[in-house]
Amino acid sequence: MSSATFPVNSGVTRTAQSGWLRWIAILVLLVLLLIAAVILWAYGFARSALPQLDGSVRAHGLQERVVVVRDGHGLPTIDAANLPDLFFAQGYAAARDRLFQFEIWRRQATGTVAQLLGQREVSRDIGARLFRFRGNLKNELNHYHPHGEAIIHAFTEGIKRDVAEVLAGVRRLAASFAAGEVTGDGGKSK
Predict the structure, then answer these.
(1) How many other β-carbons are positioned within 10 Å of the β-carbon of residue 106?
(2) What separation in angstroms does the CA of 141 have from each of 128, 156, 161?
(3) Is the pTM value of this prediction over 0.70?
(4) Which of 26, 33, 103, 117 has CA 20 to 30 A from 11's CA?
């Protein structure tokens, strides 16, 4: 058998091939950098909505100094000199951890879940509006504890303080709010 050689010429020179390869490599690198930037941005955005676990927070509405210490799992332990400050701090810390949950509970109690989750929740909202509490709230709260009304008032003032900080831009809302476009005002701010 004899072998024959054929000249191979694709019409593209090596310098042209390496030029295209260089552009493809640059394009791939830019895409990877863009993906990395998006991931870092998303991480920073999500992280900024987490509650503050260390340092000091100045919360107006307290009568005396309150210390909130979080354990390794992020659970708060509150040391306060009086009950109103204790429950204010509890409401404030709970709102920082669970504001979206509070918003869902508020909507369930007021019969406005369908504004957030759609038509399938209308029957639940109708039921909530029919069966809402119509009694004397002060008597009801003080039935559970002699200072029940004051405790609940202090707790909700702590929640309101956190909401005020969110509205003032001091901290960001959790991503769950952004995803659901929840405003806390029944959608009036849209």
Answers:
(1) 13
(2) 20, 13, 22
(3) no
(4) 26
